[in-house]
Amino acid sequence: MSAHENPLQEDCLLEIGCEELPAREQLPIRNAAIEQMTRLLNDAGLSFGQITAYVTPRRLALWIQNLALHSQPRESIRRGPPVERARDAAGNITPAAEGFARSCGVAFADLSTLDTEKGPVLAWREVEAARSSHSLLPDIASQTIAALPLRKRMHWGTRQDSFIRPVRWLLLRQGQQMLDWQAFGLQAGGQSFGHRVHHPEAIQIDQPANYAAALLEAQVMADFDARRTHISHKISVIAEDLRATPILPSALLDEITGLNEWPVILIGSFAEDYLRIPEEALITVMMQHQRYVPLRDANGRLISQYLFAANIHSQDARIVIHGNNRVLRARLADAAFFWDQDRQKSLTARLPELQNVLFQEGLGSIYDKTLRLQKVARSLSSLCNVKADDLERAAALCKSDLLSGVVGEFPELQGIMGGHYARHDGENAEVVAAISQHYLPNGRDDDTPQSPAGQCLAIADKLDTLCGFFAIGKTPTGDRDPFALRRAALGVLRIILDAELDLPLDKAVTLTLEALGHDIVKDPTAIGTGVLDFFQDRMRVYFKEEGFRADQINAVLSRQPHQVLDARKRLEALARFLTEHQAAEALAALIKRVNNLLRKENLEAQREPDPQLFEDPAEHQLWTHWQVMAGSVHTHIHNAQYANALDLLAGLRPSVDTFFDNVMVLAENPEIRQNRLALLTRLQDAFLGVADFTQIQGS
């Protein structure tokens, strides 16, 4: 039902107009605004329909449909002392009861009783009167804005309140009525403003439902998603006309959307001579520095044309295009100059100069880190199935591009440019690949290295950083992680899992600490334990994000804390077992029972069950059943075929049930008791070969 069809509901519109919002902040702000407004309206007892949020560079707005004109009356109950303490032995009202009535603002006779788990108590039921939404909304609007997750707030003028950018106008109305909202030294009105250039005049918003349409007439596309779709479509159409394919990742599209209220897509170009620059440099200049969209031809090669969005519909688009071409040309000219200059000096020749570049106080220079990397890389080479000489050569040269002109101008190209320089210097393909990939992954969305040498060198580099900073006491605390050590640890885990490397973290950490040396690592045991515990925390987070339950993760990591790939295999098998086998949880409960028995009793070391001591057919049945499958179970576990092992073990359920139904494990005869415990130990060991089932919680 629309607002005008129900006299008890009206649409509401809130808008805050400001200077240009950062493009990357707009979606988080928009989503948070809906969440906060929803929470505050619910808390106020105001019913409402759909909430639509709009965000552009100059505004954040919320359209709340079918908002109730009054809050729901709500009953609150205050509890007082027990009824038995309301009067004394003489029947007089006690001070406690009088005090409670006084605190409620009523007489004792007005109180009622309330039955509770601890018996009846005095109570005061109060119904909060309905309140007008017109009176509630200004404060709700202020609270919504104050609760937005802004990375940085700024002050302007002499005011104490803050926002991400200076606020220029406010709008708050419900139906036809403008509400009295004051914030940031401004009084809310019933007007918005259109495009800064095309329609700078005020726009009267007569109805909240007309907001987006009114702005569209003023050449502002208020809806972020609609604006994003429009931009994507226009880019696709123009690129198709050029017989080209745009390079348009979603992050770039979001940023372009956040920079423009009235996007007009235009074609720019640059001199073809600049195509001799490595394409990563060209793409970085266009995408990250200029927010342009590079284009590839049918063969996948970059072309000398690009697309960009202008936040204006110019009468002469050639002027806008010329201005953007000129800016890009200057950036590309710098890149070309540095590219030509850098190749005149080899990576090997730059290596000694790294002694003058500090890596971290307490860990020496970049040159010192390079020497450590060579040792760690050679030590890890056999574990990663990489030629040691290639890996050591790549480790020696991988940081030299930090001294190049291109990386100095575009730091995000470190490693990538090193690969190009190594290729120019005549290094072999494995060395080139390792150098170019060894920083990967830099972030959560980055790919992991694809070459074996790149994988191994990336792990070595991140391990040196992790172990080094732990050794000098620079560990993350709380939310603070200034040296991005969590990201480094996560990078190591992702590489191991993506490349399916059987790399034991404990051994890798030990080798890295040895390379750091005793001058840096004063207590190798303590530092190693700290690093491995840190990795375990990251593994828990990573596996949980993959969808595994916390209890399953704990059950596996307690048995396999250092082999990441093996831990993932166990988790997959365990999750499948607990999901697909109907008897899985019951069997897990039985294994817990076995573990509890064995924990309480002292079993003679390595005792084997003796069938001659079995007294009950259930013992023979369980032993025979186990003997039939034991070899296969152990083989599956040895080959990391954990799902197959658990499938077999699930078949033990009937025999285990019968055993516990008919056999007293803790028999009075010590020989019989020890023999039965030895039988149960065989089962416990088999299940522990996959996970610690005592940590599995019921569904």
Automatic annotation (TrEMBL):
One of its GO terms (molecular function) is glycine-tRNA ligase activity. This is Glycine--tRNA ligase beta subunit. Residues 591-684 form the DALR anticodon binding domain. It catalyses: tRNA(Gly) + glycine + ATP = glycyl-tRNA(Gly) + AMP + diphosphate. Signal peptide: none annotated. Keywords: Aminoacyl-tRNA synthetase, ATP-binding, Cytoplasm, Ligase, Nucleotide-binding, Protein biosynthesis. It is found in: Cytoplasm. Tetramer of two alpha and two beta subunits. Pfam families: DALR_1, tRNA_synt_2f. It is an enzyme of class 6 (ligase). InterPro entries: DALR_anticod-bd, Gly-tRNA-synth_bsu, Gly-tRNA-synth_heterodimer. It comes from Acidithiobacillus concretivorus. Belongs to the class-II aminoacyl-tRNA synthetase family. Its main location: cytoplasm. It comes from the Bacteria. The lineage of its organism: Bacteria, Pseudomonadati, Pseudomonadota, Acidithiobacillia, Acidithiobacillales. Its EC number is 6.1.1.14. HAMAP family: Gly_tRNA_synth_beta.
